[in-house]
Automatic annotation (TrEMBL), chain A:
<feature type="transmembrane region" description="Helical">
    <location>
        <begin position="99"/>
        <end position="121"/>
    </location>
</feature>
<dbReference type="GO" id="GO:0055085">
    <property type="term" value="P:transmembrane transport"/>
</dbReference>
<dbReference type="Pfam" id="PF00528">
    <property type="entry name" value="BPD_transp_1"/>
</dbReference>
<feature type="transmembrane region" description="Helical">
    <location>
        <begin position="229"/>
        <end position="250"/>
    </location>
</feature>
<feature type="transmembrane region" description="Helical">
    <location>
        <begin position="201"/>
        <end position="222"/>
    </location>
</feature>
<protein>
    <submittedName>
        <fullName>ABC transporter permease</fullName>
    </submittedName>
</protein>
<feature type="transmembrane region" description="Helical">
    <location>
        <begin position="262"/>
        <end position="283"/>
    </location>
</feature>
<feature type="transmembrane region" description="Helical">
    <location>
        <begin position="133"/>
        <end position="153"/>
    </location>
</feature>
<feature type="transmembrane region" description="Helical">
    <location>
        <begin position="160"/>
        <end position="181"/>
    </location>
</feature>
<dbReference type="InterPro" id="IPR000515">
    <property type="entry name" value="MetI-like"/>
</dbReference>
<dbReference type="GO" id="GO:0005886">
    <property type="term" value="C:plasma membrane"/>
</dbReference>
<keyword id="KW-0472">Membrane</keyword>
<dbReference type="InterPro" id="IPR035906">
    <property type="entry name" value="MetI-like_sf"/>
</dbReference>
<keyword id="KW-0812">Transmembrane</keyword>
<keyword id="KW-1133">Transmembrane helix</keyword>
<feature type="transmembrane region" description="Helical">
    <location>
        <begin position="49"/>
        <end position="65"/>
    </location>
</feature>
<keyword id="KW-1003">Cell membrane</keyword>
């Protein structure tokens, strides 16, 4: 028997083990097909659909128990109102008006943000300008500017476009700038090595390299813009003959058509979802995910 | 100035580094990276800048590339003073993120050719294919860089640089982040590529062994600030045991040069002797 030295332990001596007859690549060991339910549970979309279905069920049950469709219409009533409003054309018109205003404001906001960011990356004074402006205006809720906008531009699309631009601009510029700053030094040098500078350098190196951050900024900007737009439309729309979705909600509340109010809100949510998990998810899949810049 | 006697017998050098002092600023100090460094690189040279960290070898390469301006002296390519980065001095970096992640391997090789307008269209695509073939990556032409291993990424960077036929290829410790086996493989591949195309390369390394294997001319730099200790010949070791002895002898000699005789004798035994520390 060896005496075990507790101060300086040594590993025990063991015989060697060699497995002589291992067949290479036993396919059954490596891959096992997943069962039906395992596959269903693995799909994020299906899981979320399940949650939505459960919420809808809860809504319907609660609405029926309450039995007061002026305060809380059921899911069924809401869907009927939704189809009704859609068929009559009002809902679709209202939605298109909203989307058109949003589109105009969003594009202008993003273009301005891009310009501001390019100014910011090309000089130190520009950087200071951007950071001062964003720290001043980013915390200012866009909707708070609406009274001022009404004073300047009157009641109409221009005022709404103005506040929506304000909600998009700072969020997008801030993200874009952060994205540009975080582009790796090596990547910058490989761009300049080829002789790129000025605008081509920004277009061919900085923008694609900062694309994950830019996309995040665009998403945040979109969410801000959509919220601000609906809120702004709630305030007026009275005299602009074709109001947007916000106006649809407000109008129906005044007429105590609560189911229609719910239908309007549902549309706001659906469009939000469609843009978020439709358009942006698609862009992500074909850009940053494919490039391995984001999982 | 160069301290050589028969400069006149040589052809005009491709790249002249003439009394170059480099300096960079930190918050409180102006740090001198190199002190009046001079050397000439000739066509088809495999010129190695070797030294411990802090000898300014990477700064020198960046200055040649045009990313850094000397505070004293000048750098000339074909007699023209270097003032800014340009595609006639393509650089291969140590970091793997030098490839554009949003472009496929083939697009990465095409990018400098198209942006500089040196080659375009069918011509450029044909060149891209040829150089990817040379670095054995034809199969991966349509793959994005994040799907490649470190060694493959470096091969793409080399193909991208060579496809543009730069006057000088600059390599900044290109294999330092690779594992030992891949590094050895890449050194051999680089030599094969050189043997076919006979390009001119300035290669920065801190590994004495790599310097001897890769280079035909080795500039030994001392640290803080970087000054030229020696310019040595390497290469043509032949085959077999005698070559091993010659390589070992040069290794020991450089070690002694950098760390004094005692260090040379003791660490000269290690086969892949790296220059560690720097004081």
């Amino acid at each position: 028997m060896a005496v075990i030295d507790t101060e300086r332990p040594t590993p025990p001596q063991r015989p060697e083990i060699v497995h002589a007859e291992i067949a290479a690549g036993d396919q059954k060991l490596v891959e096992t097909p997943l069962g039906f339910f395992e596959r269903i549970a693995a799909s994020e979309g299906l899981r979320k659909l399940f949650i939505v279905a459960m919420l809808g069920l809860a809504w319907e049950i609660y609405g029926r128990l309450l039995g007061n469709d002026l305060i809380f219409p059921t899911l069924g009533q809401t869907l009927v109102a939704w189809v009704d409003a859609a068929v009559s054309g009002t809902l679709i018109n209202r939605t298109l008006t909203s989307l058109r205003v949003l589109g105009i404001a969003y594009v202008i906001g993003v273009v301005l943000a891009t310009g501001l960011t390019i100014v910011a990356v090309s000089s130190r004074l520009g950087t200071d300008l951007l950071s001062t402006l964003t720290s001043m205006f980013n915390p200012l809720p866009a909707i708070a500017l609406l009274p001022l906008a009404l004073l300047w531009f009157g009641i109409g699309i221009t005022s709404i476009v103005f506040v929506v631009i304000h909600s998009v601009l700072w969020a997008v510029a801030l993200n874009m700038h952060t994205g540009f700053l975080s582009v790796a030094e090596t990547l910058r040098m490989s761009g300049r090595n080829v002789g790129l500078k000025g605008l081509p350098y920004v277009v061919y190196i900085l923008i694609p390299a900062a694309f994950p951050a830019i996309l995040a900024g665009l998403k945040i900007g979109w969410a801000f813009a959509w919220r601000t737009l609906i809120a702004a439309e709630l305030v007026f729309g009275v005299s602009s003959r074709s109001g947007g979705l916000g106006w649809f909600i407000f109008e129906n509340r005044n007429q105590l058509q609560t189911a229609h109010v719910f239908a309007g809100l549902l549309t706001v949510i659906l469009i939000g979802l469609a843009v978020e998990s439709g358009i942006f998810r698609l862009i992500e899949r074909y850009t940053v995910a494919r490039w391995g810049m984001q999982r | 100035m160069h301290g050589r006697l028969d400069d006149s017998a040589l052809p005009r050098p491709r790249l002249e580094v003439d009394g170059v002092t480099l300096q960079y600023r930190t918050r409180d100090y102006a740090v001198r990276a190199t002190q009046r460094v001079s050397f000439d690189v000739h066509g088809a040279d495999r010129f190695v800048l070797l030294g411990p960290s802090g000898c300014g070898k990477s700064s020198l390469l960046k200055a040649i590339a045009g990313f850094l301006s000397p505070v004293e002296g000048e750098i000339r390519l074909d007699g023209q003073k270097v003032t800014e980065p340009g595609p006639d001095r393509m650089m291969v970096f140590q970091e793997f993120d030098q490839l554009l992640p949003w472009k496929t391997v083939e697009q990465n090789v095409l990018f400098p050719m198209e942006r500089t307008g040196k080659y375009s269209g069918k011509d450029a695509r044909e060149r891209a294919r040829r150089f990817l073939d040379k670095v054995k990556l034809s199969k991966f032409a349509h793959v994005y860089p994040h799907q490649l291993s470190g060694g493959m990424k470096q091969r793409v960077a080399i193909a991208r640089a060579l496809a543009l036929e730069p006057r000088v290829l600059l390599m900044d410790e290109p294999f330092a982040a690779l594992d030992a086996l891949t590094r050895r493989e890449m050194q051999q591949e680089l030599l094969q590529l050189w043997d076919e195309a006979r390009f001119t390369v300035v290669f920065v390394t801190h590994s004495i062994h790599e310097a001897i294997v890769v280079g035909n001319r080795i500039l030994v730099l001392s640290p803080h600030p970087g000054r030229v200790k020696a310019e040595l010949n390497s290469g043509d070791f032949g085959e077999g045991a005698e070559a091993g002895m010659a390589i070992q002898a040069l290794d020991t000699r450089i070690n002694a040069m950098l760390f004094g005789e005692a260090a040379g004798a003791s660490t000269g035994q290690s086969q892949a002797g790296s220059v560690h520390g720097g004081h």
